[in-house]
Amino acid sequence: MADTTPPSRHRDRLDWLMQTGWTTWRLFSKNELLNHAAAVSLYFLLSAAPLVMLTLYATGFLERWAETSAPASILLAAIYDQFHLDTLRQFGVLPEKARLAASGAGLATLLLSSRGLLNALQSAFRVIFPTDSKRRFVVSWAIPLLIVPLAFLLILLGVAARGVLEFLAQPSLLGAARAEALQMASGLFTLLTVWALTFFAFRRLPLRRPPLHPTLWVSALAALSLIVLAIGFGHFYSAEKYRAVYGSLAGVVFVLIGIYFISVTFFAWAQCLYAVSKVDVAALERLFLGREGQGANRLENLAFSGSNRLLAKYGQTLPAGSVLIREGDSGELSYYLYTGRVALYKGGIDGIPLGHIEQGELFGEMAYLLGEPRTATVVAETEVVVLALPPQVLEELMRYSAPFSRRIIGSLCQRLKLMNQATEA
Asked: Which of 48, 115, 176, 343 allows an S-S link to 144, with CB 3.0 to 4.6 Å?
């Protein structure tokens, strides 16, 4: 069936994607998330090592149980295969035998490092999703001691379950057709598990929760890219090559680099989720401040070259003589004059002229910012196209862009000066 979507709709979607991508990259670079990813990787390694030690200690019980139990044998084989315990032992990351004392020390290290891990994650999310609110003191101290071990336990159970599914999916046990179906179920289970954990992190870690629907599909894309990254990393990077360079530290370096790439990807998608809710604000800032040729690179100019999407969402076309704002009215909309020219009057249309507003200027924001009725009447002298901005959009613009806030302050000062001159006259 042919696509009946108007060409402008396709263009608007392309503009939205380009603007979202540019805003994500701009904020990602500004927030220095590569450094946050490095901190998360270090704390993850400190947290994961005790967990793997405890897992290795638990395998001792499974080995004795597996002598008389087929399910225990399957579970034991899955744990060794999924966690590569033999490889970790070979690289010297794990000792040949895990002692009970070592497990106790590992548990203490896990509790301390898990707090550092969650604090590093929360620090990154405070930068990605800025807000003035704070978590309660007790919650900020208690949650890290519980949520990180719980998350690792869920990951452990998920990996073990996937290992069991892959073991049972061998053609020799079920036949080729059933084995293939079970393999697909195993892959789907992994994707859903990663999606659920990513969605929980994107939804719960920000102090101001992002919208539900964007969180759902952004976390789905993040989960898919994380799985592809993990597969690609294991395929293109070999632990043996690291061993040739780093010797006994090869396993640690290999895991650290892998977690770093995963953290970078995870934070990039989190920043994308924030950019989705700010893409209109970023486009409006670019339109209002007019950055064309003022330090903007070609990619930014290309991403923000079109205004059709903003006009379709906020635009209004009014003929000459239309009254946009009446003095004394209560209104919260602000207007950006995209094309045309308007005149300002004190005391109504037949009152004292205050001057003109030319294309590219913002007006009507004073009433909302001061919490007062409209202080002047605004009339279109020519046919005008304006962007009508709700108060929440204006608030987001001022919070998002310091240059825009300075321009608002300058405009208010100029308007107050004109009002005073008109009153004195």
From this structure: 115
Q: Residue 366: what pLDDT?
A: 81
**Residue in the block written with tokens 């005391």:** 347
Give the C-alpha separation, 286 to 271, whole Å: 19
State whether 372 and 246 are in the same domain: no
- CATH code at position 362: 2.60.120.10
What pLDDT score does 3 carry?
42
| Bridge-based pairing state of the strands 315-318 and 377-380 | unpaired
pLDDT the model gives residue 33: 93
In a domain, 291, yes or no: no
- Looking at the domain assignment, is residue 358 inside a domain? yes
Helix (H, G, I), strand (E, B) or coil at 377: strand
**In the β-sheet with 384-389, what is the strand arrangement from edge to edge?**
315-318, 384-389, 334-339, 362-363
C-alpha span between 343 and 17 (Å, rounded):
37
Residue 155: C-alpha distances to residues 57, 73, 94, 117 (Å): 17, 20, 20, 16
Q: Specify if 139 maps to a domain.
A: yes
**pTM assigned to the model:** 0.75
Q: Is residue 301 part of a domain?
A: no
Q: Can you list the residues of the chain whose pLDDT is less than 50?
A: 1-6, 98-103, 292-294
- Say if residue 56 is exposed, middle or buried (CB neighbours under 10 Å; 0-12, 13-18, 19+): buried
- Residue 415's domain comprises 309-424
Q: Which of 237, 285, 234 is nearest to 394 (CA)?
A: 285
Split into its structural domains, the chain has a count of 2
pLDDT score, position 1:
40
Same-domain status, 330 and 385: yes
Same domain? For 152 and 223 the reply is yes
